[in-house]
Amino acid sequence: MRPPSPLRRFLRVLREDLEAARHRDPAARNGLEVALVYPGLHAVWTYRLTHRMWREPALRLPARVIAQIARAATGVEIHPGAKIGRRLFIDHGMGVVIGETAVVGDDVLLFHGSTLGGRSMKRGKRHPTLGDRVVVGAGAKILGPVWVGDDVQVGANAVVVKDVPAGSVAVGVPARNRVPQPAVPPAVDPVEDPSLLIEYVI
Ligand SMILES: CC(C)(COP(=O)(O)OP(=O)(O)OC[C@H]1O[C@@H](n2cnc3c(N)ncnc32)[C@H](O)[C@@H]1OP(=O)(O)O)[C@@H](O)C(=O)NCCC(=O)NCCS
Questions:
Q1: Residue whose CB lies within 8 A of the most ligand 1 atoms, among 38, 115, 148, 169, for a mutation test
Q2: Per-residue confidence at 63, pLDDT binned at 50, 70, 90?
Q3: Which residues, listed in sequence order, are joined to residue 93 by a DSSP beta bridge?
Q4: What NCBIfam families would the database entry show (predicted)?
């Protein structure tokens, strides 16, 4: 069987983006509605195009122009050079910024006002790297070339300036990492904790 053409693959990625928006927003009613009225989806679709253009040096300027037109229309600024995985969903759109050297994994959810920004004016890697299934709350800022592991939740309005280990929750300014505790506390061995041993004896 012949592999799918680049156009078919591109259209498949766009369709995945639409499905991601439809499934992640409880307010979404059907695919047509999502395709028509979700600015975050329009921004991601435009990024898919501009990122392909970005790979051709001669097309970099038009890619940036298109990205700026998308920004005016959606309120979302995604630099064409950013590397974004599959099924990104930007809920509500407005005020999201994704910088040139940012890397975003698969199945990431960004709320409005979130920023994947830089802390220095130097060239080179200066924006964050997000793992898979990361959720970035409304108004949160992740600044500098920090690493945010898989399944991290960044709280609304947090300012993240240090790495965040996989599976944790980062809240506050500057953000503190909180590793969720297991629902059932692990059993304590009384032999290892003498105070408990006394209680058991009594
Ligand atoms: C951070 C977040 C993911 C935590 O969710 P959670 O795991 O259910 O945690 P909890 O709500 O139990 O809160 C845990 C602690 O963090 C605090 N906290 C939660 N969100 C916080 C935030 N954004 N900033 C500062 N502290 C926060 C809680 O007060 C609580 O503190 P305590 O342990 O001292 O009582 C969630 O609160 C959040 O901010 N999600 C973003 C949602 C969003 O942006 N929605 C926009 C919809 S339009």
A1: 169
A2: very high
A3: none
A4: cysE (TIGR01172), EPS_EpsC (NF041874)
